Amino acid sequence: MIADQTQHRPSIGHGRNVIDTVGVVALGAAIPVLIAGRGALGVAAVVALLCLLTSVPRRDLAHGINEAFKSPLGGAVWLTFAVWLVSVAVSPEIGRSAMIWLRMIALLTAGTALAVVLRQREDLLERSLRMLVVASMAGVVLGLAALHLLPDSFAWLRGHAGEAVATEILKSYGTAVACLMPVVLWAGWRAGGVWRLTVLVFQVLAVALLFSLQSRSGLAAAGLGLGVVGAWLALRRLGRWGVVAVVLVAAGLLSVVFLDSERNNTIEAALGLPTWMVDAHRQAIWNFALSGFGYAPWFGTGFDMITRLPGAQEIVAGSTSEILPSHPHNFAVEVLIETGAVGFSVFAMTLVLLLAGGLRSLRRCGTAGAALLGLSAAFWFASLVSYSFWSFWWQATYVLLMALVVAALTPGQVSAGLGLKGSVKQ
Question: 192-199: which pairs have CB atoms within 8 A and are 24 or more residues apart?
């Protein structure tokens, strides 16, 4: 539902330079500052929103948001939220589930508004993208330093002295870096010149960070995201052999992940999947969660209520872990069980429309469309194996990065549904 309707408009003037600059810095740094904690992302996002929303006339902002909401993709999103409201109503903790529901609406509306602003103020978009590159580079450098040079000091700064090691503290940041990689590659290539060398160095450092974190989901997500954007860039610049080289690099990252199969494999692989593909503990979690589908098949258990399933707190045989921790580590399973067959169906329909919009953007907008698909590939794959789909910081990572990419697309490409509406970008 991120807006892609409003046409570019000229800059509004010079009196707002300071506020605009603060907003640009906050937006570009919002995801990279996850290295300082999830609260830092929230603060940066709020600052960006407050500073940038007044950078365009209110009438134009309202028109752009309204156009996005009225689009086929926007309609599918609102239908999904309407159906999910039933899941909220049947939740044993209505207040908790309602808060998640409202928070998602607020986040999507904010992302849509930012995309409208950046679409109308192309100068702010360019500055935000360059800030994203700079902040992302700084983040991975600091991350590597925290892991290899000052791990104890970093843990102390994050308030975990003596409680956790740096690798555990930075796990979520590493997965966010995997989502950053395709967008940063596109942003640097778009800027040209020395920015292209900068983003290539960033990719190398980001891969090194993910290896240091032993983040299998991050490496796999990075391989998919970079595979999409890199293959498109290589096809345009180097031809088919360039594509082959990029695919081999991406496949190498995926191979490293799959070859690391000695994890949690002292327990039974409940779903019968090979443990080099999905570790046995995750299979046990997914199997248990799916077995609870019959408790509320139509509209689910309610948001974030899956741990209420009977037996969820028992220990997996042959392990010291609970059968179902705080969430099932799989967005499809989580949405299915917590919103039921009806909620999952409308959600899946929305994802199909989003995919159609991404493919249309690739066809008509080139590299920006590839960035959207690369970001989506990284985010949705990581969501299949990590984190709760309802986590604000995780959803915000996708929405904020998506707003930056969508603002650069030809109007109408993402939100037009399954058709081929929208003008071809020259």
Answer: 195/130, 195/133, 198/133, 198/137, 199/133
Could you read off the pLDDT of 206-253 as tens digits, one per residue? 999 998 988 888 888 888 898 888 778 777 766 565 566 666 766 666
Domain presence at residue 177 = yes
Q: Is position 227 within any domain?
A: yes
Taking alpha carbons only, the member of 289, 283, 295, 380 closest to residue 327 is 289
Phi and psi torsions of 264, nearest 5°:
55, 35
Distance CA 4, CA 27 (A): 18
The phi, psi pair for 315, rounded to 5°, reads: -90, 135
For position 338, what pLDDT does the model report?
95
Which helix (H) or strand (E) segment holds residue 391: the answer is none
| Interior angle at CA 323, CA 319 and CA 328, nearest 5 | 125
Phi, psi of 322 (to 5 degrees): -70, 150
Q: From CA 202, how far away is CA 256, in angstroms rounded?
A: 20
* 8 domain residue, yes or no: no
Least confident of 177-186, 237-246, 329-338: 237-246
Token pair of 244 as six digits:
């082959």
Which three-class secondary structure state does DSSP give residue 90? coil
Q: What is the domain range of residue 349?
A: 17-406
Residue 411 forms part of a structural domain: no
